[in-house]
Amino acid sequence: MSNPTLVMYDEEFQEVNEVIERLLKEANAKVIFLVDKNGQLISGVGETERFDTTSLASLTAGNIAATGGLAKLIGEKEFSILFHEGEKDNLHISIVGGRVILVVLFDNRSSLGLVRLRVKKSSEELSAIFEKLMNKSEEREKRGSADFPFAEITDDDIDNLFS
Amino acid sequence: MSFINYASREINCKIVYYGPGLCGKTTNLQFIYQRTAPDAKGKMISLATETERTLFFDFLPLSLGEIRGFKTRFHLYTVPGQVFYDASRKLILKGVDGVVFVADSQEERIDANIESLENLRINLKEQGYDLDKLPYIVQYNKRDLPGAMSVDELHDELNPTNVPEFEACATTGEGVFETLKAVAKLILIDLKKGK
């Protein structure tokens, strides 16, 4: 398999949330999302209840994938930052540590310059956390998948989902 | 590539519906969307042209319920079937956990089916996947049409590896949920093995 399963544990989840909560305040943003490159929402802070987060995650990943395809066509590795300017709200989308996507939604109470500056700092912290997470998953995998929650499911468990 | 979140106790998997243009991929998703309880589904997104041909992808998030305290969510995607959208198709396959190949049963579409299936294999390979190792289901759609080939003939052409196969009529919904259940089950069995 080209990509191992992404596993998020409580400890790293809290660390990630601390970083993006801080970024939310420092960048004066409305909402911040972290999305896996495959379109799965990892976490979100701020006014998340106002948005369809699942759709947002999927479209963001599609957007990054499409611009990544464009980048390759012109000989770039990827475009690591995307910026979408709206009438009121703006989206700053960036790739963190090569595998997760950081989405910052902000309005005129903030500015692109401020968001870029704060995102840069937070990205480094987030990269480190995700690096740690990957190492942890790999280690656990080497030890065998005994702590994997699905190792013990039965055919009945699966059938029950569809009953 | 599934995503397991211990913090929110969720497991997310990605299913891609693949197949030639106009074979009924989007119709499959539309039927699932119509027949699913509102609390079990999210919004269906279709990035389509003005003539309702899929331009980039359709997306439908479903939550199936809990297994051992973990919420299981499936993200259903379709690819654009038309040959010239190949660059977009490759992108959708990233991180896929299971594939449904929707074949058009009409005799005049057999070459398009074969071409699309070869394209699926090639595009998966580019992403580092092997179709023979992925959870994979074949659906023979449009069984209701007068020009439909027999299932035996379709099987010989499109399912040489004998993966589970279903007859369907996506417009009336026949076979649609059977296909979805089968691929979801294969994915969960795969997860159980811990890959």
Provide tags for this entry:
heterodimer, A: alpha+beta, Beta-Lactamase, 47% helix, B: alpha/beta, Rossmann fold, eight-stranded mixed β-sheet
Major sheet summary line of chain B: 8 strands, mixed
Protein chain pair with the most extensive contact, residues per chain: A-B, 40 and 46 residues
Order of helix and strand elements from N to C terminus of chain B: EEHEEEHEHEHEH
Beginning-to-end CA distance, first to last residue of chain B: 10 Å
CATH architecture term of chain A:
2-Layer Sandwich
Oligomer: heterodimer
What does this structure look like?
The complex is a heterodimer of chains A (163) and B (195). Chain A starts with 5 loop residues before the first strand and ends with a helix. Chain A is α+β, with helices and mostly antiparallel strands and 163 residues long. The mean pLDDT of chain A is 90. Chain A contains 4 helices and 6 strands; from the N terminus they run βαββαβββαα. Chain A is 47% helix and 21% strand. A 5-stranded antiparallel β-sheet of chain A has the order 3-2-6-5-4, with helices on both faces. The longest helix of chain A has 31 residues, at 112-142. Chain A has a single domain, classed as 2-Layer Sandwich (Beta-Lactamase). The longest helix of chain B has 17 residues, at 110-126. Chain B has a single domain, classed as P-loop containing nucleotide triphosphate hydrolases (Rossmann fold), CATH 3.40.50. Chain B has helices at residues 25-34, 86-92, 110-126, 151-158, 176-192; strands at 3-5, 10-18, 45-48, 54-67, 70-78, 98-104, 136-141, 165-167. Chain B is globular and about 50 Å long. In chain B, 30% of the residues lie in helices and 28% in strands. Chain B has 5 helices and 8 strands. The model of chain B has no long low-confidence stretch (mean pLDDT 94). By secondary structure, chain B is an alpha/beta fold. The A-B interface holds A 1-10, 13-14, 36-40, 42, 52, 54-55, 58-59, 62, 65-66, 68-69, 145, 148-153, 157-158, 160-162 and B 1-8, 11-12, 14, 42-43, 45, 47, 56-57, 59, 61, 64-65, 67-70, 72, 75, 87-88, 90-92, 94-95, 127-129, 181, 184-185, 188-189, 191-192, 194-195. β1 of chain A pairs parallel with β1 (3-5) of chain B.
